[in-house]
């Protein structure tokens, strides 16, 4: 199963992956790279948090990205603003497989999608 070799890492702890994340996002939703960089730099252990999906066999290659936000403590809901997996890895349930545990581990019981999932 492919999910066994994949890992989510925090962008603010792995800043060397930011350029790849920006490229993946811009392939689906073109936007100025400077604006994307500003978003990445706001990532923290609290929300918003930006996560890169990597393969443990090649940890320098980003194969997916997700940005999560929340209104905690007022609302125990996670908002998914961007979720994208590179084309060759799509259709394998990767986004769902990794998104659900991350949200549930933070004590949230609802996930709201705010954009298209690719």
Automatic annotation (TrEMBL):
A GO cellular component entry from the record: cytoplasm
Leader peptide range in chain numbering: none
Gene3D superfamilies listed in its UniProt record: 3.40.630.30
N-acetyltransferase domain residues: 20-96
Pfam families cross-referenced by the UniProt entry: Acetyltransf_1
Transmembrane segments: none
One MF annotation (Gene Ontology) recorded for this entry: acetyl-CoA binding
Protein name per UniProt: N-acetyltransferase domain-containing protein
């Amino acid at each position: 199963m492919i999910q066994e070799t994949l890992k989510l890492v925090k962008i603010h702890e792995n800043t060397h992956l930011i350029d790849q994340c920006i490229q993946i996002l811009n392939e689906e939703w073109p936007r100025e790279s400077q604006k994307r960089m500003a978003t990445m730099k706001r990532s923290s252990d609290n929300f918003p948090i930006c996560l890169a999906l990597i393969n443990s066999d090649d940890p320098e290659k980003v194969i997916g990205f997700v940005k999560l936000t929340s209104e905690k403590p007022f609302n125990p809901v996670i908002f998914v603003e961007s979720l994208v997996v590179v084309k060759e890895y799509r259709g394998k349930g990767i986004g769902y497989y990794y998104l659900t545990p991350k949200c549930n581990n933070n004590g949230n019981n609802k996930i709201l999608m705010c954009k298209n999932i690719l």
